[in-house]
Amino acid sequence: MTAKHRIIQVGSYAGSPTANDRLARDYDVVELWKYPDRKAALAEHGKGVDVLVTSASMGCTAEIIDALPDLKAICSWGVGYETIDVKAAQRRGIQVSNTPDVLTDCVADLAWGLILAAARRIAYGDRFVRTGGWGQVHGSIPLGSRVSGKKLGIVGLGRIGQAIAKRGSGFDMEVRYHGRRRRDDVPYTYEASLRDLAAWADFLVVATVGGPSTFHLISKEVIEALGPKGTIVNIARGPVIDENALVEALQTGKLGNAALDVFEHEPKVPDALKANDNVVLLPHIGSATLETRLEMENLMLANLEAFLKTGKVLTPVVE
């Protein structure tokens, strides 16, 4: 019998249908999360290991990379990679892969669900019915706002940002965007100033990458520029928004609504957001459909298999 190839798995793929089972079936997996002393586990089992699998939530630190002298590839489940020390990997010539494209449509769909939920007060209305408010003589909910024909601002026009913008055309919306640079291959207007984009928009959707380069990119100034009739939607990463400034703006009426799938200190969500009826909250489920999670799993495994066969991953992270 041929010995299975040994790999390191940083954490359990709880959000993927069969990833753990498929890895265990085909590889000799060192399940790092099961060891109370990671450093000792890496020292004992890490020699000769050339592939590590992880995810955006589990990450891979420079400490883990340094503990694996033979590591040559990191295969991650998910599109985000801010929790992986890519620079430390690159200094060693270690390839890093993620799973782009396969989750684009589901995340864009959810962004639109949040836009509609915030504008038309869908979550509020659901609670209103469930708690018996509709049965009261004078029971009614505050009026929402129209989505069709409004102004849609997008922060970060990558794959997901473009998919969100495309859906905006179905609502007869004018679309503008802000990013690190102007794009010549899209039909949307570029705003060099993020504050100006926020001041123009009715809905501001955050679809940029996470990490140090975008930490608190959506600042107090940007939030207040969006204004008391504006709505901010975040399907990117929580720390992109200054959460304290967001809470303050909502409480003081300087911002109209927020619809959030991600938060600055997940899974902790400020009580002030939970208590605010102008806020829609979701538990980071942008890619959480059966179809997309399976495609993410398949692509992560395909990257692993491709590296072992050819020495190259299929979807490398390029910085």
Automatic annotation (TrEMBL):
Residues 113-286 form the D-isomer specific 2-hydroxyacid dehydrogenase NAD-binding domain. GO terms for molecular function: glyoxylate reductase (NADPH) activity; hydroxypyruvate reductase [NAD(P)H] activity; NAD binding. Keywords: NAD, NADP, Oxidoreductase. Residues 25-317 form the D-isomer specific 2-hydroxyacid dehydrogenase catalytic domain. One of its GO terms (cellular component) is cytosol. CDD domains: HPPR. SUPFAM superfamilies: Formate/glycerate dehydrogenase catalytic domain-like, NAD(P)-binding Rossmann-fold domains. It comes from the Bacteria. Belongs to the D-isomer specific 2-hydroxyacid dehydrogenase family. This is Hydroxyacid dehydrogenase. It comes from Bordetella genomosp. 9.
